[in-house]
């Protein structure tokens, strides 16, 4: 009998397991993969997420694995340039984008060192319910082996957007917003000097690039769903054409210098959603409980933040500090409150076009380095939104940028700029 079973050992599951094992609980982690194992990902970890790795004593391992430090962002959105970097968060003055074959193995090994039992290559096929209707375990098998059943006080689903745990317990989705686009990406050599770019053009297309392990750059494109048929007809040509469209000079460099080292990978992601993240004997974390468009690269960071939050609440319930239901209800409330700003910002930016208010504000922000770095700090998770979007902050932004009074917008619901 375990205290906790965690289904899924990647960026949300292993941190939860590690934290709970460190607290003295008996923890089992199962995952269908065997590590090191790759998975579709943006790889991007914002400074707020790196702060968690630092707290857990794992950031140095990520850096030691040869993950390049990135200290400048080149962000362009429909003609607005933000070039700079966020101020340090907890002393962290860079971002890192580790390959998942690197990051996930570090996290799984950390869970093991903390005392969690890890079974790799184990596929969960069902959830076990007790006579009272509460979840009390899982069934599954390792490889082609016999079916096995494990029991626990709580089962945590960290098994991604298509979570079997969420499906079996009937977790309901809410605040659903349609997905806007699709991604193609791969890894390229020959682009060592490119650094971090995140750029959107005027034709509902975007490309991004950032260095990762092995001397490679991840290069990705996003286009609106209406363009999927065109992309599928010739992905290689459309991939290069997207970079040409958004940044012609980089498109030329890409064609001349880039060497693709792995297959081009498509990713059609599901709609944005929240799921009810807990019930009798179960909880959800990471993409199993909350998913948003990958455009802002907040998936891993939120997995760390919410995993840490859930581990604290589950520990309270298991330790008798307060009833488990009360602790998990607080997790639900805090998760939704603390992620709301990122969710709104991400789903707006993923449309690849800006409403007039945000176009006006970001255009003004890009005029000064101070406000550029402040905005990049908001994106990084270190600056609260009121420091930019409160009326008095907007007034200062417009004053510093020299925006005429008639052109200033203060209401996110504004439909057009003044003449």
UniProtKB/TrEMBL annotation:
One of its GO terms (molecular function) is oxidoreductase activity. It is an enzyme of class 1 (oxidoreductase). It comes from the Bacteria. Its EC number is 1.-.-.-. Keywords: Oxidoreductase. InterPro entries: FAD-bd, FAD/NAD-bd_sf, Geranylgeranyl_reductase. The keyword Oxidoreductase applies. It holds the Pfam family FAD_binding_3. The keyword Oxidoreductase applies. Residues 2-175 form the FAD-binding domain. PANTHER family: CONDITIONED MEDIUM FACTOR RECEPTOR 1, GERANYLGERANYL DIPHOSPHATE REDUCTASE. This is NAD(P)/FAD-dependent oxidoreductase. It comes from Actinokineospora guangxiensis. The lineage of its organism: Bacteria, Bacillati, Actinomycetota, Actinomycetes, Pseudonocardiales.
């Amino acid at each position: 009998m375990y205290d906790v079973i965690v289904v899924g050992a990647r960026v949300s599951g292993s941190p939860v397991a590690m934290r709970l094992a460190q607290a003295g609980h008996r923890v089992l982690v199962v995952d269908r993969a065997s590590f090191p194992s790759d998975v579709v990902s943006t790889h991007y970890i914002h400074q707020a997420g790196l702060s968690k790795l630092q707290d857990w004593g794992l950031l140095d391992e990520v850096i030691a694995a040869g993950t390049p430090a990135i200290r400048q962002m080149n962000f362009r959105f429909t003609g607005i340039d933000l070039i700079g970097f966020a101020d340090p968060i907890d002393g962290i003055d860079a971002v890192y984008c580790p390959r998942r074959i690197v990051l996930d193995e570090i996290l799984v090994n950390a869970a093991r060192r903390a005392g969690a039992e890890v079974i790799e290559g184990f596929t969960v096929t069902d959830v076990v319910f007790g006579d009272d209707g509460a979840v009390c375990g899982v069934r599954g098998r390792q490889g082609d082996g016999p079916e096995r059943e494990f029991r626990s006080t709580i089962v945590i689903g960290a098994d991604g957007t298509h979570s079997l745990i969420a499906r079996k317990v009937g977790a309901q989705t809410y605040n659903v917003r349609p997905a806007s686009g699709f991604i193609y990406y791969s890894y390229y050599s020959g682009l060592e000097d490119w650094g971090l770019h995140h750029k959107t053009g005027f034709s509902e297309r975007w490309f991004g690039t950032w260095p990762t392990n092995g001397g490679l750059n991840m290069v990705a494109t996003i286009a609106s769903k209406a363009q999927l048929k065109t992309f599928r007809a010739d992905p290689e040509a459309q991939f290069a054409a997207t970079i040409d469209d958004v940044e012609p000079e980089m498109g030329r460099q890409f064609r001349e210098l880039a060497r693709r080292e792995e297959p081009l990978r498509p990713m059609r992601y599901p709609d944005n959603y929240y799921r009810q993240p807990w019930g009798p004997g179960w909880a959800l974390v990471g993409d199993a409980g909350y998913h948003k468009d990958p455009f802002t690269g907040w998936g891993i960071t939120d997995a760390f933040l919410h995993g840490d939050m859930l581990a604290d609440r589950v520990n309270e319930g298991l330790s008798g500090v307060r009833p488990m239901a009360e602790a998990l209800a607080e997790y639900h409330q805090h998760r939704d409150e603390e992620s709301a700003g990122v969710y709104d910002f991400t789903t707006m930016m993923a449309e690849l076009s800006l409403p007039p208010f945000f176009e006006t504000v970001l255009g003004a922000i890009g005029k000064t380095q101070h406000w550029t770095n402040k905005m990049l700090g908001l994106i990084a998770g270190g600056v609260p939104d009121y420091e930019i979007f409160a009326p008095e902050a907007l007034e200062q932004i417009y004053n510093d940028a020299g925006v005429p009074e008639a052109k200033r917008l203060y209401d996110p619901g504004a439909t057009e700029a003044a003449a």
